[in-house]
């Protein structure tokens, strides 16, 4: 248990569906992240939020839409995805960037399959 | 782009020490060395981090060379449950936008 909870753990969706991945952190952190891990590829940083503001968008297609309503919650809204978007989506959080010991903690991930 | 170089795979006998190397020759003065591992189908797990001094915790030891251009993660008594992909990451402590993973080292602990 890392203090970062992701739901659902598994999701199967059609290419015309709209779905969302949810992440919640119970660590009092102020930064949250989305990563994508495709089969046999390194983790790819997708988005970073610091104090609810998006500070990084790593050239992610607009069919992935993040939302960070507060420092504890992060969503990834999915719309008209492609089969190649099937992957493990990982959420992570870390403390205030100005604090020492700014370690990033990951959730267990959401396995997404697009059919 | 990843700033580190790691061997793609290593084997280790159960009960022996596993020494995982990482090269980070372009590391700058404000960048820390972090190690994570990822067991199959799970999220990455934080192991240890350091700036220039050697560090030890309940999971592992981190040895950083004096010139800071390379480091070694040591698992003192590897078990089968330590089989995982180990990632060495270099990042500035206060830069949350720079947490980028490379391919890592796939460590296989054998009985």
Sum up the structure in keywords.
heterodimer, A: 115 residues, mainly beta, four-stranded antiparallel beta sheet, 11 strands, 56% strand, B: 111 residues, 9 strands, 0% helix, 47% strand, globular
Structural topology:
The complex is a heterodimer of chains A (115) and B (111).
Chain A: E1 4-7, E2 10-13, E3 18-25, E4 31-37, E5 44-50, E6 53-57, E7 64-70, E8 73-79, E9 87-94, E10 105-106, E11 110-114
Parallel strand pairs in A: 2-11
Antiparallel strand pairs in A: 1-3, 3-8, 4-5, 4-9, 5-6, 7-8, 9-10, 9-11
Chain B: E1 9-13, E2 18-23, E3 31-38, E4 45-50, E5 55-56, E6 61-64, E7 70-75, E8 84-92, E9 105-110
Parallel strand pairs in B: 1-9
Antiparallel strand pairs in B: 2-7, 3-4, 3-8, 5-6, 6-7, 8-9
Give a structural overview.
The complex is a heterodimer of chains A (115) and B (111). Chain A has 115 residues and is mainly beta. Chain A has strands at residues 4-7, 10-13, 18-25, 31-37, 44-50, 53-57, 64-70, 73-79, 87-94, 105-106, 110-114. Chain A is globular. Chain A starts with a strand and ends with a strand. The mean pLDDT of chain A is 91. With 111 residues, chain B is mostly beta strands. In chain B, the strands form two sheets. A five-stranded mixed sheet of chain B has the order 1-9-8-3-4, with no helix packed on it. A four-stranded antiparallel sheet of chain B has the order 2-7-6-5, with no helix packed on it. Chain B has strands at residues 9-13, 18-23, 31-38, 45-50, 55-56, 61-64, 70-75, 84-92, 105-110. Classes of the chains: A mainly beta (115), B mainly beta (111).
């Amino acid at each position: 248990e890392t203090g970062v909870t992701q739901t659902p753990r598994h999701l199967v969706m059609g290419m015309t569906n709209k779905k969302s991945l949810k992440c919640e952190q119970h660590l009092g952190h102020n930064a949250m992240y989305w990563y994508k891990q495709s089969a046999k590829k390194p983790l790819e940083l997708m988005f970073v939020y610091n104090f609810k503001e998006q500070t990084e968008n790593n050239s992610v297609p607009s069919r992935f839409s993040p939302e960070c309503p507060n420092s504890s919650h992060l969503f990834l809204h999915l719309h008209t995805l492609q089969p190649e978007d099937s992957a493990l989506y990982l959420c992570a959080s870390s403390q205030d960037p100005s604090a020492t010991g700014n370690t990033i903690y990951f959730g267990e991930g959401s396995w997404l399959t697009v059919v | 782009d990843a700033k580190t170089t790691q061997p793609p795979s290593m084997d280790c006998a159960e009960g022996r020490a596993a020494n995982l190397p990482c090269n980070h020759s372009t590391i700058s003065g404000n960048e820390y060395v972090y190690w994570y591992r990822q067991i199959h189908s799970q999220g990455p797990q934080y192991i240890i981090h350091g700036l220039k001094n050697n560090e030890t915790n309940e999971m592992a030891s981190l040895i950083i060379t004096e010139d800071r251009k390379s480091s070694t993660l040591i698992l003192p008594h590897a078990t089968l449950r330590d089989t995982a992909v180990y990632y060495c990451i270099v990042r500035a402590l206060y830069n949350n936008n720079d947490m980028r993973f490379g391919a890592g080292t796939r460590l296989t602990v054998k009985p």
